[in-house]
Amino acid sequence: MRALLIIMLLMLSNSVLASTNVMFLNPGAADDSFWRHIDNVMQATAQDQDFSLTILHSNRDRNLLLSQVVEVSNYAHLPDYLVMVNDKDVAKKVLDIFYQKPVHIIFMINDIEQPLRLQLMKDPHWKKHLLPAVIEDNYHIGRESAAALTQLFTTTPAHVLAVAGDDIRETSLLRTEGMEGYFNLHLNTVLEQVVYADWQANKAYEQTHILLNRFPGVDGLWIGNDEMAVGVVKALKETHRKPGEDIKILAINPSLLSYELLKNGEINAVGGGSFLLAGVVGLNIVRHQKKQAFDLCFGHDFYRHLTLECPLFSMIVSNQWHQILEQEIKAVCSVN
Length: 336
Fold this sequence. Notes:
The protein is of the alpha/beta class. It contains 14 helices and 10 strands. α10 links the parallel β7 and β8. The two termini are 27 Å apart. The N terminus is likely disordered.
């Protein structure tokens, strides 16, 4: 009888999870490497944990994102959980649209401002439906990546240029601040200029040409993502510089793009791991369904520097997203 009861409880638990609907409003494009990694990890987690997942992309278009939010809020069957990024400061409007609707909201990568979160937690609705954000310490990432680039220099002082993502999103701003803070505090490096290329290869290419004309004796480049690294490397080659040799380069975000650049010796270092937060979100959703707790892996730092032989890099290149979930997320979060 006891065994039968346990089986019935397990079946009930599985049916509850199977009926859990999660909507992820991805602010990026489906073909952008970082946001594609986010999709892949979240999809692997949904399959592993048996919940329903729908993903919509807004291609960095704020108006499209807000129209998607309105459309989802009018669904006859609302999602149980809405996962999104506070991209281009859309959070307040999104929260207003979903106020008093029975949908749990989770911010990932970029959270709302802390004063606003504290204010919302005084409201009974948001106290129940606004769940903790899943983010990383981006200032720390900026410092760690700058330190890794500094270790590559053989000249003192080394002159550095930075191609950052943008000056709007908190993730980019904090990483840039951390990077600037590290370089400015170390006498063996001189940060000449920071430019913003909006995460795009073509803009990074154009910016790099301008920078090299202005600072021809540069020793190193800090680059905010892999897509921009492609544009930077192209520009260096066109100005008869050997990327990775004449100029040391660090890029953030492990992907097939950065793997090929690293393998070819065109960049010297790759750091990243923030896309793994998508799995943390999925595991926490299941935990919230079962135990009303949302606290797995909070405070864990997923950022690391990767070599060509790194297991995570190998799994990314070979699209082993379920293995990434098992080895890089579930193992860290102590989930069986």
